Structure formats: structure tokens, C-alpha cells
Amino acid sequence: MTSGWPVIDPLHAWNIATAMVVAAGCGLVGSLLVVRRMSLLGDAISHAVLPGIVLAVIAGGRPGGGLVMLGAVAAAVLTAWLTAGLTAGAGVAEDAGTGVAFTTLFALGVVLVSAFASRVDLDASCVLYGELELAAFDTVSVAGWEVPRGFMIGGLVLVGVVVAMAVTWKEQVFAAFDPAAARAAGVPVAMLSLGLLAATAVTTVAGFGVAGAVLVVALLVVPAATAELLVDRLHRLAILAAVIGMLAAAIGYLAAWRLNTSAAGMIAVVLGGGYVLAVLVAPGDGLLARVCSASALRWRVAREDRLASMWREAEGTAGGGSAGPLAWLATRALTIEGAVERSAGRWRLTAAGRSRAETIVRSHRLWEAWLGRNVELPLDHLHPPAEWVEHHIGRGVRERLAAEVGEQAGDPHGRAIPPESARHRAGDG
Amino acid sequence: MTDSAGSGDAAAGPVVEFHDVTVAYSGRPVLWNVDLVITGPAVFGIVGPNGAGKSTLLKAALGLVPLAGGSIRFDGAPLAAVRHLVGYVPQRETVDWGFPVSVMDVVLMGTYGRVGWFRRPGHREREWSAECLRRVGLADLAGRQIGRLSGGQQQRVFLARALAQRARIYLLDEPMAGVDAGSQEMIFGVLDGLRAEGRLIIVVHHDLRSAASWFDGVALIDMRLVAAGPTASVLTPKNLRRTYAGQPTVLEELSRAVATGGRTP
To answer: Does the reported pTM lie above 0.95?
Structure first.
């Protein structure tokens, strides 16, 4: 089984293909569940369909056949209906209602599987944990080709999901975003929810063969939750979720094969790892982006502080340079930028550096002047807020502050406010 | 297709009629026997204290909550027959603004009723939606994700979506809640424009002071209709005292009794 890394024999290729089509379908349906904040219902349904499947098999249905799908959809609808009934009718909190409904139904399924184990063609461990490794052995004949049953079912479900979502897409989005306005506009929101419920049930059943009842929710929810971190349009989210699901299926399968462990478990682990990665690298709100922008700000502040302190030194209102490694680095960087030069053993501002420094000091003193005028603060309380705010005041705000406090006034400490530098005035549009 | 606000009865203004409307939430009445006819063109306010049933009245009109009794008609017809002529702006907090759609996506939703099933909004709908965004002053933000807007901008996006629907009658639920003064000014300006085009705008509103200056007509509601008519004649100290009594009314007691089936809790 584990011989030869680059060579993938056809059986493994079929297993991977099966996992990929199933993951794609789950990712698409899951994207709607996740943006509707219904991830937990997805979890509930993936468990609660079990008794429906078992009863359908007892009634003569084949695993993955039409009767079984029907049984699963019926069980899913029953779950949603029971949850709603418990919540609205009996006054139970929604999470508790969901919890009661789906665990009870799942347990009923487990009991049925065990009780009828001898009579039905349904293996409890296969249903609970999936047997992706064996998917390629159970084949059906399609136009002379031997195709794994799981791949056929997954493929048909995927095609059905894609067609259904494409046809009802704009209504689904409207109903998911603003159900009240959608209903008022005549969109059959309840029917669409029922459709989503049925799609969840059917993709879940297709997913049992790959991941089993316990882990299929990972295929349903995690790719969409990951995609949600990375893009901010629903159609991109859905497509990305399908792609993430397919990638994780392939990578997880291959990793499990190499490490000789459970494919379903490894696929779910890969999905979880992908989610953590997305949390780190997500644009805007991701940890990495936040760390980067915080560092960039610190670096800018260090250089601006250095410029302002040198300017004040030349003005004679502050003595001594800043110490510390960051200030040292900032000085070197400013030299390279051409804002600072060394002459006769001393650091001096160049013309460009002076202009930049004046902008910062101007922001600082304008803010002090404005605070002194509008907020009752003792004189020695004005400097710290200005020291921080000076780095965030743009030209527009400076102009408004200057208009309010007046250019000639000077700051509350009696120092002159430097004029808006030529560089900035030239930029006037 | 032409603007349907002008179709048919150019002479008659838009009308909403509430006939003896009673609404109950799971067995407990929250609105009793509201009998009210609102004729346009006008900007009409529905004003009352918290929990008075103002929003419920709008939701009942839109079929979002069932009527326990009575009927509601738009231009003499039931809602199902004239749904696309009735525009709705829900309360801003009722939706998840982190939802992955752009400003333009949301405004386009207003055109879905005319576009119909199985078709996507085309070039014409996009142009018209962009025009609606211009009217609420958000033309520059069409591509932005809706979560990155201020509260006032979000409310204006909702208004633009309603404009995109080209309705004849607009129902707005608390459009001024949590909205900055500039946006309020702009929203009322847009509503004035709609009235000038002959439409009827009904606004659920909580602020009495601005009500006096913005609305042509007002209905005061506190679980029942207290008074309705031209703003100046309705917002009298006597009517306001009756609306904002601040103590449990006999109606609340009765509602509780109905909800518990006569058993005293």
C-alpha cells in the first residue's frame, strides 16, 4: 500500500477523486450554511440523517441510492422541524433544542444500525468513520467503465448542487442576507431554506463514505469558514470553499497514505490546519497583517520622532538626541532616505528632513493648541496626547485645526507653530 | 417596462388601508383593532413608545407576521397582487453587516422582483442601481463590502435598495436609529423627493421632535391607534400624554390574559 511516493496507482487515484468530488459539494453547500450562521445545524443534520438512512436501507434501499437519499432528507427535515418545534413551541433555547433533537436522532440511528446489523448491508464503523481507503473497490459499471460507487454518488450530488445553486443563486443570497426583506419582496424564503436543508442532507450522505458521520461536518463547515476569512464576496467564498475542500481531500489522503493512518481523520486535520493558516495570513484582519501594520506604524513613529526631536534640538526647545537601538536604526534609515546627514561629527537635518520634521511638529503643536482651547487640561497634560496623535494627523485635519486655532496663536507653551511646509503646499490640488 | 408608479391611476394617490387590524405574537396580542387609512403622496410617520407595536404594524402590512384579525390593502388590493409596488426598509440591526456582499450587490437586490427567477440582473439593472446609489450619495462606495460602512451609510444602502425597487409605497422601519445627523438629513431629503414623485412613504420613527418637522401626517400608536391625521393636529400634549402614559394600560393586562388563556399567573 505505501510503496513508491510519486507513483499513485489507479485505486488511490480513484479514492482521491472520490474524496475531491464529495469535498467540493460539501464546500459549496457549506458556504451557504456558514454565511447564514447555520454551521451548527450542518453538524446536527450530518448526525441526524443516520436513522433515515438506516430505515431506508432496512426498507431495501442501497447505500447511496435514491431511497437512502430520501430517508436522509426526511430525517434532516424532521431535525429542523423538531428544533423549531422545541424552540418556538416548548420555549427551549435554540441551541439546546438543536442539541436534543440531533443527538436523539443520531442515537436512534446508532441503535438501529446495531440492532439490524445482521439484516442490513450497513457497517456501523463505515457509517461512523467512513472508509475512504476502500472506496475504489465498490464499483458500478458506467458505459463499460468500472467507476467507484462513491465517486458516482459524489459526482451526481456535486452536479445537482451546482445546478441548484446556480439556478437559485440570487434568491439564496437575498434570503441569506436579509430574510425579512426577501420575504416582503416575494422570495419564497422558507422553500429556499428547505432546499438548503435537503442539499445539506444529500451532501452529508455522499460525505459519509469519505469522512463518516462524525467528521463529515468538517468537510461541510471548515472550507467555507476558511474561505470566509480570505474573501468578501459570496460567490468567491463558495468557489474558494470548494477548492479548499478538494485540496484538503487530496493532501489529506496522500498524507494519510504516507503515514499509514486514517484518511478521513487526516483530511479533517489538514482542513483545520488550513483554517489556522488562514487566521494567520488573512488580509486586513489576519494576525500577520495586524502584526505587520503595527510594526510598520512603530517604524514610522520612530523615524518621525527622531526627525521631530532633531528639529526641536535645532530650535533650541529640546536637548539631546534619543538613545536606544530603534532610534539608532531610525537615524541610519533617515540618512539613507536623505533626510539626515552627518557633518562635522554631528547629525543634522537636510532641507528635505527639515520639511518633514516641520510637518510633524506642526501637527503636534496644532493639536496642543486645539486641546488647550477646547479641553480643560493642565498645561503639562497636553504633550503626551500630542506626542501620539502627531503621527496620525493628515493635511486635511491640520488645515481644519489651523483654521480653528489660527496660525499666529502659537502653541499653549508659547512656541511658534511652524508653517505648512512647501512640499505639502505644492501638493495642493 | 415603465415606472409602475405612474401606471393606471395617475389621478389617485397611493393608499394604504388598515381595516380593524389585530396582531398577536404566539397568542399574545400586541396591536389591537387598528383602523387607519393613509393616503399619499405624503411622508407619514408612525410614532409611539418602545414596544408599542409600530414595527409590528409594518411587518403585518408586509405579511411578515400573520394577522389575528382584520385586513390590509394597498391601493385597494391585497399585498400578494401588488407586492412589487411595496418597498420595505427593515431595521438596520436585523441583518448581519459582515455578510460577504458589496454595496452594489445589496442595491441590486431591489431589482430582483422585476428581474424574476432564473435570470441575473443585467446592464440596465446595474445602471439603475448605480443611479439609486448616487441619489443617496454613495456612488463612490459601490464596490465596498457592506461591513466597512458607517451606520448612516448602511442605512442609506438600504434606502437605495428600496429606491431600486421603484415602488409606489415605501415602508421604512426606524431608518433614523443610530444614524448621524448628516445621513438623517440626506435620508429625509430623498424621502421628500419620493413624495414629490407622487409616492407614499410610511416611516416608523421614535423621535418626537424631528417627527413634528419631517412628517406631513402622523399616527400615534401604543398597542392601539391613539390618534392619526395631519402632524400639527395630532401631536398635541393631550394625545402625547395618552400615548406615552408610561404605565401598564388595560390593553397590556388584557393581552396577558389572552396569552395565558384567562389563567391568572
So the answer is: no
